[in-house]
Amino acid sequence: MSTTRDDLLKLHDWDELIFGGFYCLHCTPEDAWDYSVAWPCQPLLDAGVTLDDAREIIAQHRDEIEAKHQARAAEIKAKKDEEKRKGQQAADDFNSRYPIGTRVIAHPDVRPEFDAVEATRTRVVSTTRTPAWILGHGEPIVSVHGYAGGITLDHVDIDHDSPLGDGEILAHTLTVDSISGFDNWLDRIDVFAKGYWENVDGKLVNTGLRIGEKPGHVIARFGDTIIRRADGSFYVRTAVTS
Ligand SMILES: [Zn+2]
Question: I need a labelling partner for 228 at 20 to 30 A (CA). Which of 16, 57, 114, 222 fits?
Answer without folding.
Answer: 114
